[in-house]
Design goal:
The complex is a heterodimer of chains A (549) and B (584). Chain A is an alpha+beta fold. Chain A has helices at 3-6, 86-99, 129-139, 170-178, 215-222, 239-247, 271-286, 292-302, 304-323, 339-351, 358-370, 376-379, 396-410, 419-430, 442-447, 450-453, 457-461, 464-467, 495-498, 506-547; strands spanning 11-18, 25-31, 35-39, 47-51, 55-63, 66-73, 78-84, 143-146, 162-165, 187-192, 197-201, 231-235, 261-265, 329-332. The longest helix of chain A has 42 residues, at 506-547. Helix content of chain B is 43%, strand content 14%. In chain B, helix 6 (242-250) links the parallel strand 12 (234-238) and strand 13. Classes of the chains: A alpha+beta (549), B alpha+beta (584). Chain B: It comes from Sinocyclocheilus anshuiensis.
């Protein structure tokens, strides 16, 4: 298919662009296969480059022959284009609609994008399971790397290499896989160096209504327990939801069959509920006609903050079991690809200081989200302005980022990255020139030949010139476990994402710059003082003969 | 001291709302001024001090299996949950506290001496002088003058002795207008905006009833209007909801009839009265002290308290004034009922929006002295200092401080002070340790000879100003008028104030502390730098001399007076202290 077929009018003059808190710009609108571009003729700085993939939905309005298109983006921005001429407007609108909803992955921009920078460090090679396993091997010899899933046949959503208990053979793994939803048998998620406890993740066991059991599954998870010790199973669903799952062949671990494990149920919402929550939240953030009461009641009704609180609470619980109780943990929900990953990844941020560095955080996303099979492409197909019936879209990863932001806000000196890094990740999960978040699993990415045909987000982000704006100037490595407060008073609405386009950031940017300035100036001063001291010390020693004539 | 039945109780538990570890047993002490709880574990000693004046209520809860609980609520939003082993002890402490926290006669300030002599005391009270602020605004000038008509508080007993009035307004107009205003609180100058020549004036409601009018009052407003050469009309802002103002008309009070005054534009603002605010805070505090609430409980509670709605209404009114002054160049006359609560909030807030001076540490002191203390905000009643009518108590001043905090969240670089300054002022208002917030008006303070018997707070705050500095403050940004967003979603719950004592809820690392310590380091670093450079200068000379000496080695002996003088200046000790002195 040619993009040209979809572009009915490639170019319109005299288009006026309205953006909140920015002056209006008049210029020429161009449509290309992947971008909507508006450039003013006077000044090249006033340009808009918008990926079609970033467009969530559009609305058309007409007053006389002047058409208006309201473009609502997945990064939550809303812009308005006034287009003279009804026909042009209709053409542009239908072209945008077609181009922003392309079905085929291989037509996505990452397959056409050629980097204008030299790839020094290939992001595709940065985080390979073998490397992570080497780290693990240096701490313990209880685990092995299994190739049982090398052709993705045991579990299509798992990567080809998996870390499993040493004493469990591949055959047992296959049997355990057949007992878990989607073949997602329990695998290692995190090893807590401090006390040797582990966190594992899986999908729900397929006990069904007649209470099926699987000896291999039991053996597999028991193998992670020390003699005489109990472990915790954190089921991210409520007991009622877990009960209902039995009717559909799913279920949860029965005490009788897992006597060494204590099961705890939490109440993280399922993905379709989360999508609803996001839509409501963004709707209330954008409605400026609210009274205070209405705003607070809409915020409450959106349930977004409740979701943040529940996810963080569950992550704290998992971390507590490991660090404070000295027990191993197994986390799962239904499929094990959404709430499970929120919990396991956040628990690691709480427990493991290396996850709070930029590289460590990237590795965490790679490990616990991309390779763990979070279906990014399905979840991020639409954002808060989708008006169609939601299929499998859900802001699961955005909620994770929100939770990370909450921890960052409470521990502003413990992260190597700043808020902008999290916002950047949010943007790239929904629309990007890089392909890191394309596809729903490792298997799909391998099939798409992403590493050969496209550029990884990490190849770009990790360049020093890009990294600079994501560095937290307050960062001081902190080796402690960081326990965030989950009291409602401690959790705030993430303004950087949800009010980003509804406020002027001038004053906040100034404050950030000032902070950077204070820190930089101090470093400089410190260097100067030190070098003066050295000079003096040198002079002093040279002078010693003079002291004792 | 006779109130203290038992000065010391052992084996008392202080219950934590978020129990992190098992609470340990501690000892409770009652002194004449404080309740002190001491927790001693192995090598740490934790002390909790509560000023009796900060206590709002003491409540004995039903006996439990663990002991006898006592709940102490403070005006600083601290909540102490004590558990006694013996009911007898609990009862004794309860009885003692009841008498200690509601003194009938002497307030703490009359006993407190911050180790200052009479001269310090006098200077302390003179440190903030409201008259100076008039000159800072440019008074007297062609439009406004400073008047001493109220020097004996005869025109208005709750006003200050020095007033700003339109130039050449007649005594008859002033007295006539005062008679037509509730409690004689006639229209006077609050703030003169030099750039636009527009003024903010304040008063109380007119005694207009349904039909009354007063020529002098009309003349007074006319004079205020004429004092502004840039705008033909003035705004008259009634900060009350229209319904309340109308109800007042039936009682012979009310609001200005636009027909009787030439060129006024009348406006209601809808800020609720002190009773609504008191109940709102009560509800807010219930939300704050809920035991592990869900997000939904919290947000619903926050909404139902109406607190942020009220904060927004004050902010909206302040914004209205600031906009009128800086955009329309129009003068504004503000009143509510008596003109000492809502009027004080709105006038002082608009001053902060308009004038960067009030955003400094000293400027805020001046503003509080001017708009609140001298204009008769009834601190004694509103804060319940002595055993007063509980219906008079209201968090009007707290709301003002919160508005300033909300502004500082939107404009992090324009205030010289940080959040702790606001919280400290709030604590001090209720502490009654200094005399500033005692009494209801200037006349009353004079009568109880406050300035002779108590000390002023401001020098104390200034002495500790390093704690209250905002490291992000940029003086260069100060010339701007603040235009905050008053969309509901830009108002936040002030956890730092209302949950101040729930440290577990606060960020575990403080950017403010980090930056404050950096700016401290910066000062030290710069000092070291200058010192080092100076020494290097000297060493440089020595160095030069040394080279010289080598050159003239043959002719100049080491004991030559010239070399030894320089040599002395560069003693080993001096450099050593500088090279190893500061630990970077």
């Amino acid at each position: 298919m040619e993009f040209a077929e979809l572009i009915k009018t490639p170019r319109v003059d005299g288009v006026v662009l309205h953006r909140p808190f920015m002056p209006t710009v008049e210029g020429t609108l161009c449509l290309t296969g992947h971008h909507l571009i508006l450039s003013s003729r006077q000044d090249n700085t006033e340009e808009l480059w918008l990926l079609h993939a970033n467009i969530d939905s559009i609305e058309k309005r007409f007053v006389g022959s002047l058409g208006t298109i309201i473009v609502k983006c997945k990064d939550l921005r809303v812009i308005q284009l006034d287009i003279p001429g009804m026909e042009e407007c209709l053409n542009i609108a239908s072209s945008i609609e077609a181009l922003s909803t392309l079905d085929s992955v291989s037509l996505m921009y990452p397959f056409f994008y050629r980097p204008l920078f030299e790839v020094i460090e290939d992001g595709w090679q940065l985080f390979v399971p073998e490397e992570a396993f080497k780290d693990l091997e240096s701490m313990t010899d209880e685990w092995r790397l299994s190739e049982v899933n090398k052709d993705f046949s045991v579990c299509p959503s798992y990567p080809s290499l998996l870390t499993v208990p040493k004493d469990i053979d591949d055959e047992s793994l296959c049997k355990a896989a057949s007992f878990r939803h989607g073949g997602r048998f329990p695998v290692l998620s995190y090893y807590h160096k401090k006390n040797g406890m582990v966190m594992m993740r899986a999908a729900q066991p397929l006990t069904g209504t007649n209470g099926r059991r699987c000896k291999e599954d039991e053996k597999l998870i028991n193998a992670t327990l020390c003699a005489g010790k109990r472990g915790y199973i954190i089921d991210t669903r409520t007991i009622a939801v877990a009960q209902q799952a039995k009717a559909r062949g799913g279920g949860f671990e029965q005490e009788a069959n897992y006597p060494q494990w204590r099961r705890i149920h939490k109440a993280i919402e399922r993905s379709n509920v989360l999508q609803e929550s996001l839509i409501k939240l963004v709707e209330s953030c954008n409605d400026q006609s609210h009274s205070m009461d209405r705003w607070l009641s809409k915020l409450e009704a959106s349930n977004w903050q409740s979701n943040v609180k529940e996810i963080l609470t569950t992550a704290c619980l998992a971390a507590q079991c490991i660090d404070r109780e000295g027990a191993s943990v197994l986390v799962h929900g239904t499929e094990g690809t959404d709430s499970t990953l929120q919990v396991t990844s956040l628990a690691q941020i709480i427990l493991d200081p290396s996850c709070r560095t930029i590289r460590g955080f990237e590795a965490l996303i790679e490990r616990e989200w991309l390779q763990a099979g979070h279906p990014f492409q399905q979840r991020c197909a639409q954002s808060a302005y989708s008006n169609g019936k939601p299929r499998s879209e859900a802001p699961v990863f955005l909620l994770f980022l929100d939770c990370v932001w909450q921890i960052l806000r409470q521990f502003p000196c413990s992260f190597q990255f700043n808020e902008n890094f999290l916002i950047m990740l949010f943007e790239h999960t929904y629309a990007s020139q890089f392909s890191t978040f394309l596809g729903n699993s490792v298997a799909e990415r391998v099939k798409l030949l992403l590493s050969q045909k496209t550029v990884s987000l990490w190849s770009w982000v990790n360049r020093p010139q890009e990294l600079e704006r994501f560095l937290n100037p307050l960062y001081e490595p902190n080796n402690l476990v960081i326990w965030p407060s989950v009291a409602p008073q401690s959790l705030q609405l993430w303004e950087g994402v949800f009010l980003r386009w509804n406020r002027s950031t001038k004053c906040l940017d100034e404050a950030y710059q000032e902070m950077v300035h204070i820190i930089e100036y101090n470093k400089e001063l410190q260097n100067k003082v030190n070098s003066l001291r050295r000079q003096l010390a040198q002079l002093e020693t040279e002078d010693s003969p003079l002291q004792t004539p | 001291m006779e109130h203290i039945i038992t000065p010391k109780v052992e084996y008392v538990k202080l219950l934590n709302r978020y129990p992190e570890k098992k609470s340990v047993l501690g000892t409770l002490y009652l002194t004449a001024t404080h309740l002190i709880y001491v927790e001693q574990t192995n090598n740490t000693r934790k002390e909790t001090w509560v000023l009796h004046h900060h206590i709002m209520s003491v409540e004995k809860l039903p006996l439990t299996a663990h002991g006898c609980p006592l709940l102490i609520r403070c005006k600083t939003f601290q909540l102490l949950h004590l558990l006694f082993q013996r009911e007898r002890d609990c009862q004794d402490v309860y009885q003692s506290l009841l008498r200690l926290f509601q003194p009938e006669e002497e307030l703490y300030a009359f006993l407190y001496n911050p180790q200052q002599n009479e001269e310090d005391r006098r200077q302390g009270w003179e440190f903030i002088n409201v008259a100076n602020d008039f000159s800072r605004m440019g008074l007297s000038n062609d439009y406004w003058e400073i008047s001493h008509l109220n020097k004996d508080y005869e025109i208005c007993s709750t006003y200050p002795s020095v007033l700003g009035l339109p130039k050449n307004v007649s005594v008859a107009t002033v007295t006539g207008s005062a008679k037509f205003r509730s409690r004689g609180r006639l229209p006077v100058l609050s703030y003169f905006h030099k750039d636009t020549k527009a003024a903010i004036c304040r008063c109380s409601q007119p005694l207009s009833g349904l039909t009354s009018r007063c020529v002098e009052d009309e003349q007074m407003l006319q004079a205020i209007s004429q004092a502004n050469p840039n705008c033909p009309y003035i705004y008259v802002v009634d900060t009350r909801p229209k319904l309340n103002a109308m109800a007042n008309r039936a009682a012979g009070k009310g609001y200005e009839n636009e027909d009787n005054y030439s060129n006024i534009r009348f406006q209601f603002q809808g800020i609720e009265n002190i009773h609504v605010m008191r109940n709102s805070l009560q509800k807010l505090l219930e939300v704050c002290s809920m035991k592990s609430p869900s997000m939904s409980d919290y947000l619903t509670g926050l909404e139902n308290s109406g607190w942020l709605r009220h904060i927004k209404s004050v902010m909206d009114a302040g914004m209205f004034l600031a906009k009128a002054v800086c955009e329309e160049r129009a003068s504004v006359l503000v009143h509510c009922s008596d003109g000492w609560d809502r009027t004080a909030q709105v006038c002082s807030l608009s001053c902060i929006l308009l004038d960067p001076y009030y955003r400094t540490i000293k400027g805020l002191m001046v503003l509080i002295e001017k708009e609140w203390i001298s204009f008769g905000h009834k601190f004694s009643h509103r804060c319940g200092h002595l055993d007063t009518d509980p219906k008079e108590v209201s968090p009007v001043f707290t709301q003002f401080l919160e508005c300033v905090w909300q502004l500082s969240e939107q404009f992090p670089c324009v205030f010289e002070f940080n959040e702790r300054y606001l919280i400290e002022i709030h604590n001090q208002v209720y502490a009654c340790q200094y005399g500033n917030f005692i009494g209801n008006c200037q006349k009353e303070r004079l009568e109880i000879r406050l300035h002779e018997k108590t000390f002023s707070l401001w020098p104390h705050l200034l002495k500790n100003q390093h704690l209250y500095r905002n490291p992000l403050y940029r003086r260069s940004l100060e010339c701007t008028v603040l235009r905050p967003s008053t969309l509901p979603l830009h108002f936040k719950f002030w956890c730092g104030m209302y949950n101040y004592y729930d440290r577990g809820m606060h960020p575990k690392q403080s950017v403010l502390d980090q930056l404050l310590s950096l700016t401290q380091k910066q000062v030290e670093g710069e000092r070291t730098m200058t010192e080092l450079q100076r020494v290097r200068g000297v060493v440089g000379v020595v160095d030069f001399v040394r080279v010289e000496r080598y050159l003239t080695d043959m002719t100049l002996s080491p004991s030559h007076p010239f070399t030894s003088t320089i040599h002395c200046a560069f003693t080993k000790g001096q450099t050593q202290s500088l090279t190893h002195g500061l630990d970077w």
